């Protein structure tokens, strides 16, 4: 199967160039814009993710093919079936993404995407190098009769949609669009470290899931990007694995198997409060 997100790399480059040019000709001091070292790190994370996904995708494909043999169902390949799959997969994405923020061992994979203090199209490429933890949420789609190739395709389309919402250059859109779809305004909130914005707006394509499951927050106050305690590095290896290293450091700091399981499996905020007495990590 061809990865659609990899085929889109030329489009990513062109759109980033357009965005960079827009800052030159239409500067805005209220926007974080681009920084060379930060952008270089995001690009390196993107390239590393492509390499890492060769292994993760093979493992995911093998797992999905295994479960595909167990189901008696066979989903249609008609256009309406693709649309239904796209919507169901976006619901899957919502819960997988929410788990990435609420389970620390999953956050250790996802945190690098939030590590930049800038918010531009290059930030969209700052992708995890690990992430098999949320793969089980794709299994129900296979059990409904959808072929793994169809699932991979709609998941790639979901990520393609999310590229353009990583920007400060686009303000709020027409109200009906903002009501239903994930937009740059909604996603800026998701990348914020402001207390009122933390753990909000998990949706991929549709923001209706956040409205339905009470995790929606509108963009009102100016957004401060990054983590609650930022990492002072542009080293891609440290960006990719710093939270795993933090978990390894934190485990000996607590006593008892319940607390140690909590450090790895409860929310990052719970772990930070338990180990450091604060909501931010070390």
Tags for this model:
282 residues; mainly alpha
How does this structure look, described?
By secondary structure, the protein is an all-alpha fold. 56% of the residues lie in helices and 0% in strands. It starts with a helix and ends in a 6-residue tail after the last helix. The mean pLDDT is 94.
Overall average residue pLDDT: 94
Q: What structural class should be given to the helix and strand makeup?
A: mainly alpha
Poorly predicted regions: none
Q: Which value, in Å, is the CA radius of gyration?
A: 19 Å
User: First CA to last CA: what distance?
Assistant: 41 Å
Molecular shape: globular
- Give helix % range: 55-70%
Largest sheet: none
Total beta strands: 0
String of helices and strands = HHHHHHHHHHHHH
- Counted by DSSP, the helix tally is 13
Instruction: Please state roughly what percent of the residues sit in beta strands, choosing from under 5%, 5-15%, 15-25%, 25-35%, 35-45% or over 45%.
Output: under 5%
How is the secondary structure organized here?
Layout: H1 4-7, H2 9-25, H3 36-68, H4 79-102, H5 104-110, H6 139-143, H7 148-163, H8 175-180, H9 184-190, H10 208-212, H11 236-250, H12 257-265, H13 268-276
Helix pairs in contact: 4-5, 4-7, 5-11, 12-13
In short:
By secondary structure, the chain is mainly alpha-helical. The chain is 56% helix and 0% strand. The relative contact order is 0.14.
